[in-house]
Design goal:
The complex is a heterodimer of chains A (366) and B (148). Chain A is globular. In chain A, strands 1-2 form a two-stranded antiparallel sheet. The termini of chain A are far apart. Helix content of chain A is 66%, strand content 2%. By secondary structure, chain A is an all-alpha fold. In chain A, helix 3 crosses helix 4, helix 4 crosses helix 9 and helix 10 crosses helix 12. By secondary structure, chain B is α+β, with helices and mostly antiparallel strands. Classes of the chains: A mainly alpha (366), B alpha+beta (148). At the A-B interface, helix 4 and helix 9 of A face helix 1 of B.
């Protein structure tokens, strides 16, 4: 067949058919990247739908979220889909990074593949942080206050960063406008661009060397399974959104400042940072966080050659980071229960939140 | 022959797959439809104005009750009446013409008579809604009933 007689669509199809995916012990890892792409689509669709009723002002933000949840048909489902899929997005984003590391999908020439994903993950965390404030309830207000206060401890430029985030000394209308703009415009744009670049790079480079005796074409065999899993995931998300919806807390009134309520806590993906802060001074926690991001970005330069086996210490540091992340998060989660001091301060166990307010079906009071 | 059979089977499988996807997406389109179709129920309410505010050349005044535009007129028999002011054609705000008497919409030359009934032959196909008016001394109170 001569090349000219083919349409672009035919060429893409032929290209995808010629790509082989392994079928073996580790192949489940190949699905996480696709999960993230699918969840991004869910995020964009539900996010735009939420935008139709959300009002980003301190006076109306909370009421508009309550309107969505209590008045608009299926509003609670749409909002909970947005939140549940955001949790899954970060979970699978981390899983895909682990997968890329295990498969060494960062050796020459794949450095950009790895770096785009690390940055994507950081931006996803940023989207989670900025989105948390938008319902403008007591819990999200206090969490954003704590979050931006921590930024102040960054050496040298801390005050500047915190001021830039908040648009002033306190969490206020400026902060809400800034977080809103970041959450609905800048971050989604960058995230989608990075995800597309990452996908394009993955197709460009092809998959890295992996052990896999049996192979199947990417199109249609692998894609069919991927799409089935997406549909399955959508069903699970819909069940979660329907039977475990997220409630809305009491709105925060800027004109009547009040103590942080019990139940102020970061999302699970920030729990490790929270726990770290109870062990080390703030500046050190920030330094460690930045060092970890720096190390992750540097991996393609530390281990560039896939002809040689990976150096032990590279794996060791990466494994330590993962262990610290999981361990500190678990430690924070399990210490919520016992410590009275914490439940009145930053953290609260889901069970207590449940008792306080029947709206808090799940602990994350968004 | 074998090739034909395989093509046939592939076509059937494709149709089945498309059907499954459509089946999965149908409820979501329904959910999205009702979510986006929500509009705030009109809450209803009251507004007042002074009788002398209707002494202008158009013998009328536009007011707003719970986001609903309303026109209050002093008819030629000096009776005070109030109507919803959105043209029933495409929603432009109508004005009162005491000389006809009637209501006129600039957007598409829509016409209503003095009772708010659409004039046959003009664009609007349904009348303006008249609202209850209470005149107490020189205070006029107009009531908009909340939507059921």
């Amino acid at each position: 067949m001569n090349d000219r007689s083919l349409t672009l669509f035919d060429k893409v199809k032929l290209d995808l058919r010629s790509r082989m995916m392994p079928r073996g012990k580790w192949t489940w890892m190949y699905y996480f990247g696709g999960f993230v792409l699918f969840l991004l689509v869910v995020q964009v669709i539900t996010g735009v739908m939420l935008l139709m009723y959300y009002v980003p002002t301190p006076e109306q933000a909370n009421a508009s979220v309550k309107l969505i949840v209590e008045q608009v048909p299926y509003g609670s489902v749409i909002r909970s889909l947005h939140i549940w899929s955001s949790h899954c997005l970060i979970l699978f984003g981390i899983s895909h990074l682990v997968g890329l590391f295990v498969m060494r999908a960062y050796t020459k020439p794949r450095g950009s593949l790895w770096v785009t994903w690390v940055i994507l993950l950081v931006l996803l965390l940023g989207a989670g942080f900025t989105g948390y404030l938008l319902p403008w309830d007591q819990v999200s207000y206090s969490a954003s206050k704590i979050g931006t206060d921590i930024a102040e401890y960054t050496p040298l430029i801390g005050d500047w960063i915190a001021g830039l985030l908040r648009g002033g000394e306190h969490v206020s209308q400026s902060t809400l406008s800034r977080f809103f703009g970041l959450h609905v415009a800048l971050l989604p744009l960058l995230i989608v661009l990075l995800a597309l670049s990452h996908t394009a790079l993955a197709l460009l480079f092809g998959r890295p060397k992996t052990v896999g005796a049996i192979e199947e074409p990417l199109w249609p065999s692998h894609m069919l399974k991927e799409v089935m899993l997406w549909l399955g995931m959508l069903i699970v998300l819909l069940l979660l959104a329907t039977f475990a919806p997220f409630g809305v807390g009491e709105g925060y009134d800027l004109t009547a400042p009040s103590d942080p309520p019990s139940g102020v806590h970061p999302e699970w993906y920030f729990l490790s940072l929270y726990q770290l802060l109870s062990f080390v001074p703030e500046w050190l926690a920030i330094f460690l966080t930045l060092a970890i991001i720096g190390y992750l970005i540097a991996i393609p330069w530390l281990d560039p050659n896939d002809e040689l086996p990976r150096k032990r210490w590279i794996t060791l540091i990466a494994a330590t980071i993962l262990a610290l992340y999981v361990g500190l998060s678990a430690m924070a989660y399990f210490s919520m229960d016992s410590s009275e001091e914490k439940s009145s301060g930053m953290l609260q166990h889901p069970a207590n939140a449940l008792a306080n307010d029947h709206h808090y079906i799940y602990s994350y009071a968004q | 022959m074998n090739l034909m059979k395989r093509r046939e089977r592939r076509r059937t499988l494709k149709a089945l797959l498309a059907g499954a996807v459509a089946f999965a997406l149908y409820p979501f389109s329904k959910i999205a439809g009702s979510y986006l179709g929500y509009s705030k129920r009109k809450s209803g309410g009251k507004t007042t104005l002074k009788l002398e505010e209707l002494n202008n050349s158009t013998r009328s005044k536009h007011v707003e009750i719970a986001e609903e535009p309303v026109i209050v007129v002093r008819a030629n028999d000096n009776k005070i009446r109030a109507f919803t002011a959105s043209c029933t054609h495409l929603g432009c705000i109508v004005s009162y013409r005491p000389e006809e008497p009637g209501f006129y919409c600039k957007c598409h030359k829509g016409k209503f008579d003095g009772n708010g009934v659409n004039v046959p032959g003009s664009k609007p196909k349904s009348p303006l809604t008249e609202l209850p008016v209470l005149v107490d001394g020189d205070i006029v109170t107009i009531t908009l009933k909340p939507q059921a």
